[in-house]
Design goal:
heterodimer; A: about 1000 residues; mainly beta; five-stranded mixed beta sheet; 9 helices; 48 strands; about 5% helix; globular; B: about 575 residues; two-stranded antiparallel ribbon; 21 helices
Chain lengths: ~1000, ~575
């Protein structure tokens, strides 16, 4: 029975195929440009539904008519059509889609083909991101995207600060919104493993970001994690190990110079100094060191060459229904400053399944464990402590001297490590989704629900060998912090193309999210027994508790409509209504609008024949975004607590007092911006570029307005003032040379931003018709937020100069700007800017056969009074008042008439800045990789790919800045930047 | 075709309905964006019953204590008379803040803005209590509680305004809780400011209890004492006399005349007893105490949450004996429980250290318990004894004529800041200037902790001896020197000092007597500012930087520039000279 049935079926098929045309079985192999087989390529007989896909080895077999045409397609590759023409073997080489016109970008609550995008969206190049000593994703992006400004970090496992397109706010937190796999992410960026990330897209302009309304004023960064891409399970092992050290340390005096410095110092103060008797200016411990001939190099004591190691293993794959990506990573980073250690373990599981034709569900989840335990040495005394210090007490006990040269204000930096310290952070994040295809073509519904839980446990104990412990007979504390945030999206999407001409899309979103945080802190001191440390705080005779809990919640409704005509004219409009609990009762909700249009000029007939122009697209957009970055309870009158005791031996009594004035009208800060952009591909797609020009105006700024002290309050949150940002961003990619064995690609980023305060409090107290500035905060109408206001210096007074009273030779000459003789408050002026003038980055990638070299140069430039930092390291008299710092400075003396560094006892009657240009050019990343993936031996041992790399970070910095680092702006009290070199391997099988 | 379209539309409607329903289920709970803080109080739930108001009053007492307990810094000294006729500053800090150079004090002066803000903070907190107590929903535990609470708050408000008026002259009067930003206030006159305080104190005196519910709370006697002082400032002598008399005649108060308290059996005298730990409160048997702020060793709330621990009088005023070297130039001292660890920042003037104790100027100290061997340790009495066993001079008295200070001036210098070399010599004085033993806990520093310079004794804000001297001032203002002398002599009699003759009583004599009785307790600066004598007295009696630089306009402090700048809707007049 069965047999006959099969026979019957076979007969029917035969009849069917014969009825159409003569068919043949065709087979072949599909490879990429690098000759590697591509699994999963769709092979289709043109004009039919007859299709198959390539297997693990890129092989396929298909039945087709002899006159049929086969269509090979794969996402990201150019579609290839081949006529069968009686062949029975058709091998195909597929090229990358050079213009990547069909590249998909995540746009928030959905995706879009890149060519259809109307806003300013830029995608990050993550190709070398995992091959560098980056512990945070954004460290890898530093400088690579124009307009996305990411700072450097100076401690192990730290997350950098970042901003998009300049500062739009005066007081409210102004970091971009992070969206992880479609979910607004409130966790830490260092909790994510960079190798788990598939793509990062940045929504820079307001129209693109407007879908996130109230939180998008500082831009939106969209991170998508990986999923499986082939049927064959793909294992990937990435590991590296390397060393880091301080990229730059301050140039410190040795003991001889130190003694001369002290002698100079006291002589400058008017003491008679015997230059031959150093003991006159030294403390007993210093004299001891001098006699022993011992000397301390604090840089060596505090900083070290520190190892970093990293292991990552992932497996991914897909079947026709299921897609999975699993990974684990372990990172161990020791900080360049002793005692600053970081350890991280991350796990990720991404999973999705097509339950049936219309339902797909998935879960993206991650867990991370970060251990920051251990206190680093104190960095600040390192630049001021005497080189003639005695680090250890006499004898062999190894006990540290608390005050290594008798100065009670300078602790032994190494005692920073004596406390027992614990700092452990755990993050769990899970996002569930269901995608439902509704029974109308093009209509689908998506539901997201996510939960993030962050826990942080910190504890510290100071024993009797520390200053703190001695003061309190042991003191300890322990804090447990937990936050839980949740989010829910309901997204209805409609997308369809009519008549191959009209592409219509619509999205409606209802979203809600909230967070609960709580924390409790236990403090104890005066310990009956110190041996158990922070694990038994009840041994402390004085115990204090502290607890806190904060909630917030938000609600949003968003609608978006898009329309495209023949890929030529594109329109998009969005509306969002948002509510946030942190705002005052009269202003819980606000509306945000945006509109954008794009014109793909190159599709027009008159440009069709311009052969060098492959694509030209013009974009214009307008959008509104909000900023709610002020947290909970800011509009309320709150009560603070204190403690007191009545009577002898009385119990603790609680005191209450109001700590803030309510503001029932506190509302969103709104940024309205306009963006004009151009995207182009020219010269056969070898050069492509994005250019954007924008202007953004922020209104109703959230400002913590200072109140007169007579009110009894410090400040109140209010909405005041306007700020404007303008800028230009350029991104150019160029394929300079592309030959069989050698290629050279360059990408260039450039950005420039200017901001200006347009209005502050709207007050004009002196009645001159011009709005008042806020001198106390350095905010001036019509000036940049970075405006530097104060006394400008111009060289140093030399002996014999005409010196005004209060000044001496060797002191800075303050510019007398007001035309009235003598220096007064009126001589302060706005004379420079602390913001950068412009930023640029250049990345070059050279590939010769299997060897590739890439290097990235990052730069922030000042010049002409831009990007000036206040460098206290330049003041020889900087330390606690009356102690000169130990940086090797060529300070002024009567015999050394410096015109740049003042006298060693310099104490200006009027405070001023020590301005120095922070401009720098940095060789930020260099990666040399050798890719053995094509080697036959690799194939033989069944490996899919093998790559070795050496990469260096912050290898060289060219700058005039004399502090630790120009970008960090660290001067005397601060930390250096780490420089690292790692060696790694990436194996996939 | 038409049918097809209709079907599609029907499908769309159906789907929209399903989705809308889904959306609705999530969006229908109204008011979830309303904020109700979970972990902190708001006025609505804090001020609903007696307990809440009592806690608010507690905070005000803490604010008074903050006037006496400060972290290291110039702020900690001013109230006791640094930069006045009492003391000069031995070492650094900021020369303006430490009152080493009055000529550089301007409207950005730190102590001025520090204390301006502090007292206005108290006024704010008092206003909240005074306003909210009127709310009819408040549940009071006794029928008189509401008025008692308002009375205590008004006492505190008056205390703050009187302090501001002494220091700054007329100030901005804020008489109720502020619910919005204000930027248009102007100064009232000095008289108006005092009058405002008078009204508060009259209410307080009428409604505060006769006897405090707890040690450390205020009574009607405290209100009357302060009222008397404010009347003096207004030169309303009769009213000042009446208010002081109400205290003096109150049977709950009398001067302590015989040994009492925790250490009555040790060698000493009654004046010494007044300052021993545990002896200040009425509950400790002290009938002379009117109001004192409370300290408790190693108890939450017993010190101060801002980093300061304990009363800093030892640290500030004690002689820095432990830096003294023996005649061989070796270290002569180690820290001792007798004296603790003074830093010696406030160096007593010759006036306070010597002159007032020898009224007839015969070179021999007058008979006065307050200058007894127990109450002031003096190097010229041989009371500083080398205590470092390794010293060759162990057990011997320090001879002031061959006191060797640290020969390494730079070590000394390094503990100080930007001191002119010319004043270094003067620093030697602070190693052995007279040690007022009221400023330490001799031989019973708690837990033997002798290295902090802080002690844990309650601190008098008002003491009956001062009430007598206030009334004496009022009698003097009225021209009645014999009654003034009589009051002064009550105080002198307790100290076994010779009575003063009415013909010798003038304001300077009263100030001298206040110095003898109340040094480092009274807010000397406030007294001198109240009398407009800060300039005159400092110039005459402070031989150091303060005395040589002070000018008449320094009788008032500058109004903080910050408030002048932020008050954009009206002009706050600056005091002349700044």
């Amino acid at each position: 029975m069965k047999k006959s049935y099969l026979l019957f079926m076979g007969f029917c098929l035969l009849v069917l195929t014969n009825a159409m045309a003569q068919t043949a079985s065709i087979k072949g192999i599909v490879v990429g440009e690098n000759s590697i087989p591509i699994p999963g390529v769709t092979v289709l007989v043109k004009g039919t539904t007859n299709g198959t896909s390539t297997d693990f080895d890129g092989k396929y077999t298909i039945n087709a008519n002899k006159d049929a045409i086969l269509v090979f397609s794969f996402l990201g590759l150019e579609t290839v059509e081949v006529a069968v023409e009686n062949q029975d073997t058709i091998n195909v080489t597929m090229k990358e889609d050079a213009a990547q016109l069909d590249e998909v970008v995540v746009i928030g609550y959905g995706t879009s083909a890149k060519k259809d995008v109307t806003g300013a969206i830029v995608s990050a190049d993550l190709s070398n991101a995992a091959a560098a000593a980056n512990t945070s994703i954004f460290q890898a992006l530093q400088g690579t995207l124009p307009g996305l400004n990411i700072g450097a970090v100076s401690s192990a496992g730290a997350a950098p600060g970042f901003s998009i397109r300049g500062r739009t706010s005066l007081s409210a937190e102004s970091g971009p919104l992070i969206v992880l796999d479609g979910i607004i992410y409130r966790g830490s960026l260092t909790a994510l493993n960079i190798n788990d990330v598939e793509s990062i897209d940045v929504l820079k302009d307001a129209s693109a970001a407007a879908v996130y309304g109230s939180r998008a004023a500082s831009g939106v960064i969209i991170i998508k994690t990986k999923s499986g891409s082939s049927e064959k399970p793909l294992f990937n092992l990435n590991t590296y190990t390397g060393f880091q050290r301080a990229a730059n340390l301050l140039d410190m005096m040795d003991s001889d110079e130190y003694i001369v410095k002290l002698q100079d110092y006291f002589e400058a103060l008017g003491f008679d100094i015997d230059r031959n008797d150093p003991t006159q200016v030294l403390n007993p411990l210093e004299i001891e060191s001098l006699n022993e001939g011992s000397e301390v190099d604090w840089n060596k004591e505090l900083y070290r060459s520190a190892p970093i190691t990293n292991y990552e293993l992932s497996v991914s794959g897909k079947t026709n229904k299921t897609n999975y990506f699993l990974s684990g990573s372990f990172t161990n980073q020791e900080g360049i400053i002793r005692g600053d250690d970081f350890e991280r373990t991350t796990l990720r599981a991404n999973f999705s399944n097509n339950i049936n034709k219309w339902l797909e569900i998935g879960l993206n989840s991650t867990y991370s464990y970060r251990d920051y335990s251990g206190q680093p040495v104190y960095d600040y005394p390192g630049v001021v402590a005497s080189p003639l210090s005695q680090i250890y007490k006499e004898g062999d006990s190894g006990e540290l001297n608390l005050f290594p040269y008798n100065d009670q204000l300078v602790r032994n930096p190494l005692t920073g490590r004596l406390s027992e310290d614990q700092d452990i952070r755990e993050d769990v994040f899970g996002a569930f989704y269901a995608d439902i295809k509704l029974p109308i073509k093009g209509l689908s519904f998506r539901f997201d629900y996510s939960v993030g839980i962050n826990k942080r446990r910190t504890a510290r104990f100071y024993g009797l060998d520390t200053k703190e412990g001695q003061d309190d007979n042991g003191s300890g504390s322990k804090t447990h912090f937990t936050s839980k945030d949740w989010l829910m999206n309901n997204i209805l999407t409609y997308s369809r193309t009519f008549n191959d001409l009209h592409k219509v899309g619509a999205t409606i979103v209802y979203t809600r999210d909230g967070s609960d945080t709580e924390q409790s802190t236990l403090n104890a001191k005066n310990f009956a027994n110190l041996s158990l440390g922070y694990n038994s705080l009840e041994l402390g005779e004085i115990q204090e508790v502290n607890s806190g809990a904060v909630d917030d919640s938000s609600e949003g409704f968003m609608a978006r409509a898009t329309y495209g005509y023949n890929g030529k004219y594109l329109l998009a409009a969005t509306f969002r209504r948002d509510g946030f609990s942190g705002f005052a009762k009269n202003f819980k909700y606000a509306n945000f609008y945006s509109g954008s249009l794009a014109w793909v000029v190159s599709e027009e007939g008159f440009l069709k024949d311009v052969s060098w122009l492959n694509r030209l697209k013009l974009r214009l957009s307008y959008g509104e975004n909000g900023n709610q970055g002020l947290g909970s309870y800011s509009s309320l009158a709150l009560i603070g607590t204190s403690q007191y005791v009545f009577g002898n031996g009385g119990a603790t009594a609680v005191g209450l007092s109001t700590s803030s004035i309510p503001n029932d009208n506190l509302k969103w800060e709104t940024t309205k911006s306009t963006n004009f952009g151009v995207n182009f591909d020219i010269f056969n797609n070898r050069v492509s570029g994005d250019i954007d020009v924008y202007t953004a105006k922020t209104n109703d700024l959230l400002v913590q307005r200072t109140l007169a002290s007579y009110t009894g309050y410090g400040s109140v949150w209010t909405n005041l003032g306007k700020i404007q940002n303008k800028g230009v961003e350029v991104l150019i990619n160029s394929e300079n040379i592309s030959s069989e064995n050698f290629s050279w690609n360059t990408s260039l980023t450039f950005s420039i931003n200017r901001n200006k305060i347009k209005s502050l409090y709207g007050e004009d107290s002196d009645g001159d018709g011009i709005e008042d500035d806020d001198v106390s905060r350095g905010w001036f109408i019509g000036e940049s937020l970075g405006a530097i206001y104060g006394y400008q210096t111009n060289g140093i007074y030399q002996e014999g100069d005409d010196i005004p009273s209060g000044y001496r030779p060797g002191w800075f000459r303050i510019l007398d700007t007001d035309g009235v003789d003598g220096i007064s408050e009126d001589d302060r002026s706005i004379y420079a800017n602390s913001n950068p003038n412009y930023r640029f980055g250049i990345k070059n990638e050279l590939t010769y056969k299997n060897l590739s070299l890439s290097f990235f140069i990052n730069s922030i430039q000042g010049g002409d009074g831009w990007y000036l930092g206040d460098n206290r390291a330049l003041n020889p008299n900087t330390f606690f008042p009356g102690r000169a710092n130990n940086v090797r400075l060529n300070y002024w003396t009567p015999n050394n008439p410096s015109n740049t560094v003042p006298a060693i006892n310099y104490s200006p009657p009027r405070g001023h800045r020590f301005d120095q240009d922070r401009s720098f050019v940095r060789l930020q990343d260099v990666t040399l990789a050798y890719d053995l993936s094509n080697a036959s031996v690799i194939k033989k041992i069944n490996l899919n790919g093998l790559r070795f790399y050496v990469s260096g970070r912050n290898l060289a910095t060219w700058t005039d800045w004399t502090g630790y680092d120009p970008e960090l702006g660290t001067t005397l009290f601060g930390r250096p930047l780490a420089q690292s070199i790692i060696l790694g391997a990436n194996i996939s099988f | 075709m038409k049918n097809y379209r209709y079907k599609t539309i029907a499908k769309i409607i159906k789907c929209s309905l399903i989705v809308s329903l889904l959306l609705l289920t999530f969006s229908c709970d109204d008011g979830f964006l309303d904020e109700v803080p979970k972990d902190r109080l708001v006025p609505e739930n804090a001020f609903k019953d007696t307990d809440g108001f009592k806690a608010a009053i507690t905070h005000l007492h803490r604010s008074v204590r903050e006037v006496y307990i400060q972290k290291d810094g110039p702020d900690m000294f001013f109230i006791f008379g640094l930069g006045s006729d009492f003391a000069g500053f031995g070492e650094g800090f900021n020369r303006a803040s430490a009152r080493m150079d009055y000529s550089v004090i301007n409207s950005t002066d730190e102590p001025s803005s520090r204390w301006w803000s502090h007292f206005y903070g108290m006024i704010k907190n008092a206003n909240v209590i005074i306003n909210r107590a009127e709310n009819s929903d408040v549940e009071w535990d006794t029928p008189t509680r509401k008025d008692e609470i308002i009375a205590e708050a008004r006492f505190m408000r008056a205390y703050a305004y009187r302090s501001l008026a002494h220091l700054f002259g007329g100030v901005i009067l804020i008489d109720k809780e502020l619910a919005e930003v204000v930027t248009d206030r102007v100064r009232s006159t000095k008289t108006e400011t005092y009058e405002f305080a008078v009204q508060d104190l009259i209410f307080a005196a009428a409604n505060l209890p006769e006897v405090a519910e707890q040690d450390g709370r205020v009574t009607r006697a405290a209100a009357n004492h302060l009222l008397s002082e404010v009347y003096l400032a207004l030169e309303q002598w009769e009213n000042a006399i009446d208010a002081a008399t109400a205290v003096i005649d109150d049977p709950n108060y009398e001067l302590m005349t015989s040994r009492f308290g925790t250490r009555a059996s040790e060698p000493g005298d009654v004046y010494w007893d007044l300052f021993r730990t545990g002896n200040q409160n009425t509950g400790g048997g002290n009938k002379e105490n009117i109001y004192s702020v409370q300290l408790e060793y190693q108890t939450p709330g017993g010190g101060d949450g801002t980093g300061a621990k304990g009363l800093h009088v030892e640290r500030a005023w004690g002689a820095r004996y432990h830096s003294l070297k023996d005649p061989n130039g070796e270290s002569g001292f180690e820290l001792t429980d007798l004296y603790g660890r003074p830093v010696g920042w406030c160096t007593t003037t010759p006036y306070l250290g010597y002159d007032i104790w020898d009224i007839d100027n015969d070179g021999i100290y007058d008979n006065d318990m307050r200058n007894s061997e127990y109450n002031i340790h003096r190097v010229d009495r041989g009371q500083f004894i080398y205590n470092r066993p390794a010293s060759a001079f162990f057990g011997q008295s320090v001879d002031p004529s061959d006191v060797v200070t640290d020969t390494n001036v730079f070590n000394l210098f390094k503990t100080g800041v930007n001191v002119d070399p010319a004043s270094i010599e003067k620093q030697a004085i602070r190693f052995w200037h007279p040690f007022f033993m009221k400023n330490t806990s001799p031989n019973n520093h708690p837990d033997g902790v002798i290295n902090t310079g802080r002690i844990y004794r309650d601190q008098y804000v008002m003491r009956l001896a001062e009430t007598y001297l206030l009334r004496a001032e009022a009698y003097l203002g009225n021209g009645n020197t014999s009654l003034a002398a009589a009051d002064i002599n009550v105080v002198r009699a307790r100290a076994n000092a010779d009575p003063v003759d009415p013909s010798d009583v003038d304001i300077n004599y009263i100030l001298d007597e206040r110095a003898r009785e109340l040094a480092m307790e009274e807010q000397r600066l406030l007294t001198l500012h109240r009398l407009g004598l800060q300039y005159e007295r400092t110039k005459a009696l402070n031989p150091w930087g303060a005395g040589t630089t002070i000018a008449p306009h320094n009788n008032l402090w500058p109004i903080p520039q910050k408030d002048i700048d932020l008050n954009t809707g009206a002009v706050i007049e600056q005091n002349p000279g700044y």
